[in-house]
Write a structure and sequence with these properties.
- The chain has helices at 9-27, 34-42, 52-58, 74-80, 99-118, 129-137, 157-166, 197-209, 220-229, 254-263, 273-276, 278-298, 303-306, 308-315, 323-337, 365-374, 379-402, and strands spanning 46-50, 84-90, 123-125, 141-143, 145-148, 168-172, 212-214, 235-236, 266-269, 342-344.
- The chain is an alpha/beta fold.
- It has two domains: 33-277 and 322-402, Metal-dependent hydrolases (TIM Barrel, Alpha-Beta Barrel); 278-318.
- The strands form three sheets. Strands 1-2-5-6-7 form a five-stranded parallel β-sheet, sandwiched between helices.
- Helix 7 (157-166) links the parallel strand 5 and strand 6.
- Helix 9 (220-229) packs parallel to helix 10 (254-263).
- The protein is globular and about 60 Å long.
Length: 404
């Protein structure tokens, strides 16, 4: 007979570990005060990068209503106070150097326009800082657009002008591969050693038209060249800091952050765990190493390979980053170059199930605000991070273009 009321250790230990994990997660999510909620609702919140268009391009959902999938929909955005998410017009690097890249970009812009057409009482296209401010007064969620990957430009300044006319207000020069504009931080091939000859001309023309230059994703050399050429501040629409992820070139090192500050630009912190935490970077490296080892041993078509993800994660739970770690990135930018040069670029809908504890979707900006309040930030400073800094840069870009 078993001992009545006792559970075997084999059952009890996993249960205790699960409870401990829940407890740790809860500890990193602050109790949101009325003040934090007021700030969220009374302040324009600009998020530099949300991948809604590509998400609904692949699997259609009406985001004007609550959705089961994804990190963004209208009810959650309202709950979190989000009022100006930059819709990412993301074109995969696999389409580089093809007409399809340009076509996909236009299709994604069509989808953003369709969001507004279907729900004009909820959304509005924003092509200027004035649009964002006016639409905020009207109670609408502004949908400015940024192009992630300059591939759709296809070496044509006419294409650039067309995309500007359709509402593109920043361009991430490259994505995961080197393209005809710039080298990518993810691509070992450095064919241009920075920007291509066309890329250098493109930065000038972007300045003249009024399109912000986004240096997220590009190589370090491309970053420095873009900053040198641009006559106005540049942005990193969704990048975090290499200080906390050593060796991860996709993030910015301290020297680059200081250069961005001298330029007057803004680094908008990416929430994805692999952008925030070295532990997550190490987990990903081990995952890749173990999977490649298994493929070498049993072949890529083995059932063991198809089951690898589930098996590996069961033994090695994914180490989600935390709200506190995201705040550390914000703090470090402030320490290096001041409060006027940091914003938020969550990468919601673009980083899968890797978002930090406490920042899982667009309803959670009050958690971030509360975290900043708890660290002693004033309301004025918080408002700069939420939108003031990015709107300043955008305004500078608009003013320069108006005279060129």
């Amino acid at each position: 007979m078993g001992r009545k009321g006792k559970k075997p250790l084999a059952i009890l230990i996993p249960a205790l570990l699960s409870l401990a994990s829940v407890s740790l997660q809860a500890a990193d999510v602050p109790v949101v005060s009325d003040e934090a909620n007021r700030i969220a609702q009374e302040t324009i919140i600009v998020d530099g990068h949300i991948d809604v268009p590509y998400r609904i391009h692949r699997h259609w959902e009406d985001v004007s209503m609550a959705t089961q999938r994804g990190n963004f929909d209208y009810p959650r955005a309202r709950q979190g106070g989000l009022t100006a998410p930059f819709m990412s017009i993301y074109v995969p690097a696999s389409l580089d150097n093809s007409e399809e890249s340009t076509a996909v970009a236009h299709q994604l812009i069509d989808l953003v326009e369709a969001m507004v057409y279907r729900s004009p009482d909820k959304f509005a296209i924003a092509k200027s800082v004035a649009d964002v401010k006016e639409q905020f007064k009207q109670g609408l969620i502004s949908l400015p657009m940024g192009m992630e990957n300059g591939s759709p430009i296809q070496g044509s300044m006419e294409n650039l002008k067309t995309f500007y006319e359709r509402g593109i207000r920043y361009i991430t020069l490259a994505h995961s591969l080197s393209n005809h504009i710039a080298d990518s931080s993810y691509d070992l091939r450095r064919q241009w050693h920075g920007l291509s000859p066309f890329g250098k001309k493109l930065v000038v023309e972007m300045n003249n038209l009024g399109i912000m230059v986004d240096i997220s994703h590009v190589s370090d050399e491309a970053f420095y060249q873009a900053v040198e050429i641009s006559k106005v501040p540049v942005i990193a629409s969704h990048s975090s800091l290499r200080k906390y992820t050593p060796g991860f070139e996709r993030n910015m090192d301290d020297t680059m952050v200081k250069k961005l500050g001298e330029n007057g630009g803004v680094v908008m912190i990416n929430f994805g765990s692999s952008f925030v935490s070295k532990e997550t970077q190490d987990w990903r490296a081990n995952y890749t190493k173990q999977k490649n080892k298994l493929i070498d041993e049993v072949g890529k078509d083995s059932p063991l390979v198809s089951e690898f993800d589930e098996t590996f994660r069961a033994k090695n739970p994914y180490p989600y980053s935390t709200l506190s770690q995201v705040l550390d990135h914000i703090d470090h930018v402030v320490e290096l170059i001041g409060i006027d040069h940091v914003g938020i670029g969550s990468d919601f809908d673009g980083v899968g199930d890797s978002l930090p504890i406490g920042l899982k979707d667009v309803s959670t900006y009050p958690n971030l605000i509360q975290g900043m309040l708890d660290r002693g930030y004033s309301r004025e400073d918080i408002e700069k991070v939420l939108s003031g800094n990015l709107l300043r840069v955008w305004s500078d870009v608009e003013k320069y273009a108006a005279t060129h």
